[in-house]
Structure formats: C-alpha cells, structure tokens
Design brief:
With about 260 residues, the chain is mainly alpha-helical. It is built from twelve helices and no strands. Helix 5 crosses helix 11, helix 7 packs across helix 8 and helix 10 packs parallel to helix 11. It is a multi-pass membrane protein.
C-alpha cells in the first residue's frame, strides 16, 4: 500500500512540475513578445462586432463567385493530384522500408530516412524553398503539397503494412512464395483499405494546406483570399472563406462515407 501511495505521489509531483514549467514558459513568451493578455481578451467583443459588420458576402462579392469557384477548383485539383501521385510513390517506398517487406536493411533505412526528411519539413517551408526554383506558380504549390504528402503517406503506409500484413506474409513465405507474389497477393490486398483511408485524410489536409500555399505562391483560392483581403474587400474575402469551409465539409463528409464503406 505505501508503494502505491508513493507511486501516485510521484506522478502527481511530476505533473505539477510539468504544469509549472509550462506556465513559466508561457509567461516568459508573453513578456518577450509584450503580449497583453487582458487587452487581448477585452478586444474579442470588438473583433466579433467588426466581423458582423464587415465580414459577410454582399451582392458585389457574389458577382465574383465564378472567379472564386474557378480558383477553388484549381486548388481542389492540385490537392487531389498531389495526394494521389504521392500515394503511388509512397506505396513503393513503404514496401521497401517496411520491416515486413523490405529487401535489405540498407534500402529500408534509406526509405525511412527519405520519409522522415520530407515529412518533417512543413508545407509552408517547402513552398518558400521551391519559390526560388519555380517562382509563383501552381507547380510550386503542387510540389510543396506532394513532398509533404509523400513523407506522411510513406510513414503511414509502412506502419499499416507492419500491422496488417505480418502474419499473412509469414504464411506465404513458409509456402515458398516469391517476393512479388507476397506483395501482390498479401501485402496490397490486406493493406489497401487502411491505405485508402490515409489517402483520403491526406487529401483533406492538403485542401487546408493549399490555402496557405496559395497565398505564398500566388495561385488558387489562397491567392483570391490574399488579393481581396489586402485590397480591403472584406466582403469578397468572406465569400472565399465560406467557399473553403463548404468544400472542406463536403469532402470530409464524402471521405467519412467512403471509410464506412471500405473499413
């Protein structure tokens, strides 16, 4: 009984220490950035009032809807293309890097290292890096989304293969099946539902990220928002936000439906 009491006391003490450190770091950040918490909280009603008065679509904004829809469609297509092409490359690297299906340890480590590199660099950072090579273009946004999607999907596919396919792969190896047969008849069929689910999740994430990337690259729906916002056309900017939200909700609903069907 005393042992259990000491254990819970230690856990509680560690939790209190971590909370104290977090509060100190937060306070230090507020001091360094000169952030006034009281002023920030009291300005919330003013921000809500401003939004109600200014941030809503009017007739002039609705006249710009065809152009907004064209840019939104471009964003959706770029997000879809980046997700699907990244999924194909990720599947190859996941098979090479998975501990269940890797050819050798060197290639496995190489594939995992590439996935870690591409996954840990943020999409905004990729966009800024690629701006030097491709300039402000749709290709820059596509590659930024592709690199991040490739890294994330490679890691997710590796874990899926290791979790789902291990027992079936061992069974086929025991029967003397060749490596291509194991991949085609065991790994892919058993892993494909989870992989599709990860692919849909990546597509949803890319739509959100594409808005920020569009602001940096001057393309798609992000460029429309940046243009209207900087020109103080808040009514049109609000319509852009509404269009983005509706597209995200629609795609999330479709993705959830597909997941319920395949899983």
């Amino acid at each position: 009984m005393p042992v259990n009491t000491n254990f819970f006391l230690k856990k509680r003490l560690v939790s209190l220490i971590l909370i104290g450190i977090l509060l100190l770091v937060t306070y230090g950040a507020m001091v360094i950035t000169q952030f006034d918490a009281v002023k920030g909280l009291t300005s919330i009603p003013q921000a809500v009032e401003w939004g109600i008065k200014n941030f809503y679509p009017n007739q002039d904004a609705l006249d710009k809807l065809p152009r907004i829809w064209e840019n939104l469609r471009e964003t959706l297509l770029i997000s879809l293309a980046a997700s699907t092409v990244a999924g194909v490359f990720a599947l190859v690297f996941a098979i090479i890097g998975s501990s269940t299906t890797r050819v050798n340890s060197f290639l496995g480590t190489f594939a995992r290292g590439i996935a870690t590199l591409f996954r840990n660099i943020d999409v905004a950072a990729w966009a800024m890096i690629l701006l030097f090579s491709f300039g402000q273009s749709a290709l820059t946004g596509y590659f930024a989304l592709f690199f991040v999607s490739f890294g994330f999907l490679t890691r997710a596919f590796m874990e899926t293969i290791d979790e789902v396919s291990n027992s079936s792969v061992e069974a086929l190896r025991a029967t003397g099946a060749s490596y291509p047969s194991i991949i085609i008849h065991s790994v892919i069929p058993s892993s494909i539902p989870q992989m599709i689910s990860w692919l849909l999740f990546t597509f949803e994430t890319n739509i959100r990220s594409a808005t920020l990337v569009g602001i940096l690259t001057g393309t798609g729906i992000g460029f429309s928002f940046d243009l209207y916002y900087k020109s103080l056309n808040y009514n049109a900017a609000s319509l852009v936000v509404i269009a983005i939200m509706l597209s995200i909700f629609a795609i999330e609903f479709l993705s959830n439906y597909i997941r319920r069907v395949i899983l």
